[in-house]
Structure formats: structure tokens, C-alpha cells
Amino acid sequence: xxxxxxxxxxxxxxxxNGERIDPDExxxxxxxxxxxxxxxTAFELSRRRCIDSIVTYIIDRNINYSNICISHCRFCAxxxxxxxxxxxxxxxxxxxxxxxxxxxMGGRQIxxxxxxxxxxxxxxxxxxxxxxxxxxxxxxHAFSPPEIVHIAKTSGIxxxxxxxxxxxxGLGSIPGGGAEILVDEIREMxxxxxxxxxxxxxxxxxxHHLGIRTTATMMFGHIESIRDRVAHLIKxxxxxxxxxxxxxxxxxxxxxxxxxxxxNSSTCLDYLKTLSVSRIVLDNFDNIQASWVTQGAKIGQxxxxxxxxxxxxxxxxxxxxxxAGVSYQISEDDIRRLxxxxxxxxxxxxxxxxxx
Length: 356
Prior knowledge:
Helix content is 44%, strand content 12%. With 356 residues, it is of the alpha/beta class. Helix 1 (8-16) packs parallel to helix 3 and helix 2 crosses helix 10 (226-243). The N and C termini lie far apart (52 Å).
């Protein structure tokens, strides 16, 4: 029999009263059938953190500087071995062309990520950052924790030194990629060559102490359990409690097409429920981003009623999710229209969630 203190209504009221939800209570929320009550609670908590009826978005571009990766993650359809005829490493001139186009479209930021390249060391990344910053007035949001750990290993230096040197060269903030599920038993099955959960958290903690803000993500709906999802959220909440360095959380469902993991895609209901529980559990995160890139525009809209307060990026370019057979495109006009249709006021932001 369900314990009276685990009744979903009591847990939701507890959250609305500003009390922290514990892991077992979070699991109970995942198990509840009344998704509308769950969503309403997440919506209320989200709007309490927002100015008036504002929903934010950003204009930026994802630049994958390379698709060469030794990690061989089972969930990834994007990576190539170095010898593959489709493998590439962009030149500074290639990246320059992409930045020029981004600036011409009103973008002021690039999100730059690549694979775990076997040959590139810290000097490559420093040179690239300095080239960009010396030629363009643009914010660089780049290099997820697995990349930082890998650069440290290939360069024979500590991760902290990597972060210090990249910041000095022009790195502005770090994306939350490579988190997947922050449970090592799961990581060992889906990404055995990637950094551990503790290493991911260590990079983020170190970055925060160095004054580098970051985002956090969760890729769910593959082989993990609900308990694993909750463990992931609790680890993020604990680190945020310590450093306050996360600007936002972005949960997105695994896309199985063209990958080595055979299973059905997560349902929209699972996505919305996970989004809502995330908003309730992550009581020290100001911003939760909707994942229209994987879910499409309509579910992106509905996400604004289930705990999200940000519509993310216009995604001038996106390659990783596209490689898994999922491709949605939205212009700035489309994002503004989608937000207005839900009764909110659209505002462009920067990476730090400051209105611009």
C-alpha cells in the first residue's frame, strides 16, 4: 500500500509550499497517472521564477567542429572513425563562414562541440578560440565535460588547467552535453569510453569555481530506469546547491534511429512528465528549456505549460539529432509566434538568460 506521505497530491502541495522533494517522492511523481496535476504544479513553479509572462529564446548556431570520435557511444548516430571517408575536421576558415552567417542573422553566440578526437591537444583549441575571438564579437559556448576530460588526457594536463587555458583563450561558457544519465552503471553500457559521472560533475564544479557558467542536460528514454533519472536530477541539484553555476537544465529524449540501441522513441507523454518532474525536483534552477529540436514545435509549445520557461535556440544549424533521423527547423518568427500563441511574451536572451 502507498504510504500516505507518498500520495502524489501531498507531494505536489509540498513542492508548491516551497519544500524540497526527496528522491522517493520524485519517483512517486513519475509513477502518478494524473499528468495534468503534475504539469499544473510544474507550470506554477516555473512562472513564479519568471518576470511577468515572459518566455525566452536565443539565436545561435551549433557548430560541430569535428565528427571524429573515439567514444563510440551506442546512442550516437553522428560520430565517425578517423579513417571514415565522411570524417571531417573543420578549418578556422570553415568556422569563420558559419560565424559570419550567424551574425548576419542576428546571432551573438555559437555552441561549438565535437567528438573525442584522438589527436587534438590543448593548443589546437586555444588557437581556434583565439582566432574566433580576435575576428568576431561573439560569445563562445563550447566543449562539454567529456571533451574537457579528453583534452586533459591527450594533453597530459589536469582538467582544471584545460579550463583555465580555454577561458583565457576566449571560452565564455560550457554546454551540458555528455551528461546522458549520471549513473555509471548506465554510462558503462551506453558510452563506456566517455568520462564517468563523477568526472562530468567535477568538470562542472571546477568550471563554476573558475567563474565559467554552464548548462546541464539529461538524455533519457534509452536503458535507464526512473530511479536513474531521479538520481541524475538529485546530483545536479546538489551541485547547484554548492556552486550556483548552472544557468539552465535541458532534458531531451533519446532518438533511437540509426543508433546501436534498439527501442521505441519516448512518447510525448513521457517527455512532458519528465520535464515536469525535473522542474519540481530542480528547485534551485531558474530555467528549464523546452526540447522542440527532438519533439517538434507543437510539443515545444505544450512544454511551456509543463514547466519550461525557455524555447531554446532557433538552431541555425544542428547536426547530431539530425543524424538520428529527426529534423525540425524553426525560424525566429516561428518561435515568437509559438510563444505568443500560448499567451506568453517572447523575449530574446543571451546565454546567461539576460534579456537582450
